[in-house]
Amino acid sequence: MNQGLKGIVAAQTAISYIDGNKGHLVYRGFDAKKIALEFSFEEAAYLLWYGQKPNQAQLADLADALKSHRTLPGYLMDIIDTLPQDMDLMGVIRTAVSALGDASFEWMPTTEQAIKLTGIIPSIIAYRKRKLANKPYVAPNEELNHVANYLYMLTGEMPLPAHISALETYMILTLEHGMNASTFSARVTISTESDMASAVTSAIGTMKGPLHGGAPSGVTQMLNDIKSEERAEKWLREKIENGERLMGFGHRVYKTTDPRAEALREKAMEVSGQDKWLDLALHVEKLAAKLLAEYKPGRNLYANVEFYAAAVMRAIDMDDALFTPTFTASRVVGWSAHVIEQAEHNTIFRPNSEYIGHLPEFE
Question: Active-site residues (predicted)?
Answer without folding.
Answer: 251, 306
